[in-house]
Amino acid sequence: MSKGLGDCDMRRIDTKRKLIEAELERRRMRQRDADDLKVVEGVIDTPTLKAVYKLLNRGTLRALYGAVSTGKEANVYRGIDAQGKAIAVKIYRVTTAESDFMLEYIVGDPRFGRVRRRSRALITQWAMKEFKNLQRYHAARIRVPVPVDIQRNVLVMEFIGDAESGVPAPLLKDAELPSPVDTYNEIVDMIERGYRVAQLVHADLSEYNILWWDGPVFIDVSQAVLTGHDNATRYLYRDIQNISRFFRKLGVDTEEPEVIVQHIMSSGE
Known about the structure:
Phosphorylase Kinase, domain 1; 2 domains; two-stranded antiparallel ribbon; alpha+beta; Transferase(Phosphotransferase), domain 1
């Protein structure tokens, strides 16, 4: 009659099983990372790859993976920094850039005295404009992704979402808001502080350019203009109109946009 397996044998088998499972998981992760890199390389041109490599070489990036969001202006990729912390890497498209749209928001900005109209040069300035706008918003204590570094058309910033899983925070339009009234008031307050403290108008604010992560977070601020811009008041009105329209659909009794604009502008004087 054969003997059964003893406790020692069972522990060895269990240890071997765990080692095999760990090795399979490592291989799966390596394959996923390789697949992500193929996705990145497939949509990035050579000059942009060189910019990414510079960020890798100076330690801003340790790895770059697949896209977490895509848009007409740029893609945002998941990355990790030198400490293994999740970061977001926004790469602005060069070949399909809508330069006429960008010129409306960058011409006349004193931070960019000489606007270059060639596509690649303009995109580099556009990326820098978002970097500077993020800095201004962050300094004013308005929730935005914290800017980390920039190289030509590649912007590195804080990852907003679940850092461990790499799942980004939902857009405001997709979020379950605990109190739409409180969220509406908070966003209007952020717009006012943006105007008064950061001296910026977002100029493209809507439920599509706000993330929800324990509260609203403004994103996509490349088109944000200084309050001295010729069209700042018109953009401010449009931002508030978009936000008011969204929250009225949620049953919020919003103030008239004209009243809010007047209040914000008077508070900034």
